[in-house]
Amino acid sequence: MRTPEQITDQELATEIARIWEAARPGAQSRVKILEEALVSALRGRLEAHQRDQAIVAAQQLAGSLRVFGFPEGSSLAKKLESGFQKDLEHDGRQVRETARDLVALIGMINNAC
Predict the structure, then answer these.
(1) Mean pLDDT throughout 72-87?
(2) I need a labelling partner for 79 at 20 to 30 A (CA). Which of 4, 17, 57, 73 fits?
(3) Where do the domains of the chain lie?
(4) CA–CA separation, 26 vs 57, rounded Å?
(5) CA dist., res. 93 & res. 39, Å (int)
(6) Helices 9-42 and 92-111 meet at what angle, rounded to 10?
(7) Percentage, residues of the chain above pLDDT 90
(8) Which pTM value belongs to this model?
């Protein structure tokens, strides 16, 4: 059995990429929760339980993206969390900013690795 010091940077990067590919569907399902909550906010119909689900999904994304080496994605997820903690459906500027952040996050997740 090899020690951690014997694992090369390339081997580590390859393994992290493999694990990310396995984790990507979970990240995409969390994005779907965020998308649905954003659509509800745009329609002025964001329910409390949906807001809570979006906040949790954003928190989970922020943590997992940070672990997988995507600090920009983690920062976007934190911004989304903050956005959903606000009164989105009554603040047009905030909902537009949240939408832009979500589009950027989706692009980052789709293009990662």
Answers:
(1) 93
(2) 17
(3) 8-111
(4) 10
(5) 15
(6) 150
(7) 58
(8) 0.86
Structure tokens at 62: 């922020």
Residue 98 burial by Cβ neighbours in a 10 Å radius (0-12, 13-18, 19+): buried
Q: Are 37 and 84 in contact (CB under 8 A)?
A: yes
Q: For domain 8-111, say whether CATH 3.40.50 is its number.
A: no
Which amino acid, 78? K
Chain-centre distance of CA 96, in angstroms? 17
**CB 62, CB 74: distance < 8 Å:** yes
Residue 113: the pLDDT is 57
Q: Give the DSSP per-residue string, 76-92.
A: HHHHHHHHHHS-GGG-H
What mean pLDDT comes out for the span 9-31?
A: 89
User: Which residue is it, tokens 């965020």?
Assistant: 34
